[in-house]
Amino acid sequence: MAVCSSWGTAILLALATLITPAVEAGPDVRGVTPDLLPRYSIPSDADFECLDGRGSVPASRINDEYCDCTDGSDEPGTSACPGGSFYCANVGFEPRTLKAALVDDGVCDCCDGSDEPVGSCANTCQARGLARKAELAERLHAARAGLQRRAQYVQEAASKLTGWKAELARLRDDLSRQEAEQNAADALRDSLQAKEDELKAAAEAAEKAPASGGDTNKEDQGSTGTPDADQAAPEAISADEVVAADQVHEHVLLPEEMAEAQGDGTAQPATQTDKDMAAAAATVSVPPGVLGRAKTALADVWSAALSLLPGSRSRSAPAVLMSKVSDAVLAQLKADLDAAKSPLSHARTAASAAATAARETKKAIAELETKLENTGKGAYGEDSAWAALDGRCFSAQVDKYTYELCPFGAAKQVEGSGGGTNLGRWEGLLDDGARLAFQRGQQCWNGPARSLQATTLCGPTERLFDVSEPSRCEYAARFETPAACRAADVAALERELARYGGAPVHEEL
User: Fold this and answer.
1) Owning domain of residue 269
2) What range does the record give for the signal peptide (predicted)?
């Protein structure tokens, strides 16, 4: 009997242990995070230690809609305690922590409906999890493609840097040649300018110089001063006309005489005109060659001079002829001046073009030197992958505006066909390429200078989107590009996808 009694006692004790109520982990303790479940997994007749260590309450008071602990930890699944929190397990999707005030408020905040009374909300976690899994798979595919493209950007950047160095060497050679051409063009322009100035001064002096070749007072003394006497002169001085003709012949060769002299190769005899022209040239500064061309231009003066003789006194013929000589010299000076204008104009154009070419080459050299200097400072990123975007621009249409972003250049806003508003000049890559910064744009009226910051995202191609103006004259955007892709980002996406049951294939990068 004693044995049976001991065995019975042992069985009763075992059964008592088995049927002792306890707060079970998981769904039996509403609103508790997985890491804290052990603290709540206690027998129902035990005491719960408040999480802040400042007291304890019977386990039966957990989630009884009354806040016993000062930190509210005895009410993880109700809204009784201000400042408390509620944990949604959301199996199949993403766990979530809510403010306790949102529990049992009639709104389904958790996709598993655990924040509201049982049966109040449908469980949408599985459907949302599948959608999220598909989204992550798409993002992972794009990130892998972007990472592969980025590797090409690194190679392109190396080629671009080599090309910049070669272009810089070529431009420096071009500049040496262009500066030599500019110096030659400047010298020719200055020489022709001096010639024009010389001709202009000679022409002005010739216009102001008095006519030579005779004393007009003496001519006046030969006149009777009466019309009748002057009208009688032609018959009275016919002999003098012969003398005057000889005097004219002294000044100017007959055209046939000039032709004969040129034909037989003999030098043309010196005439009084040669002497008079030399005397006239002595009174003003006449450039070399002008007298010879003026003398040739007087080939027809012979006929003109003879036409003056009838009705004129013989003593006046040389004076009139010398007036013709002076006029011929002046006319030749003006003709030479006009002829000099065209070469000078061309020389000025050539000098200006040479200066412009040299100036543009210097500008290109300075830009390339800056790019190469910035490369050494990491302006294109650690491996210079961002250099592949130098010189490229990307745009996005938002309502009536077109936004344009040019890495390493500028950003602007364009409305219609207008010239656009400058949103800022390139400031640099921030946070290792996480953001593109543009500063010092067009000044706002009574506000700051415009600026733009674009958050970069990994993607297979470039795409500008989500352009906004969160603050006055301060613009924000998102910019997707392979240059922003990192192997660590791809690994993070793979881990997140795995949480949804994904089994991503590790593609070769």
Assistant:
1) 204-345
2) 1-25
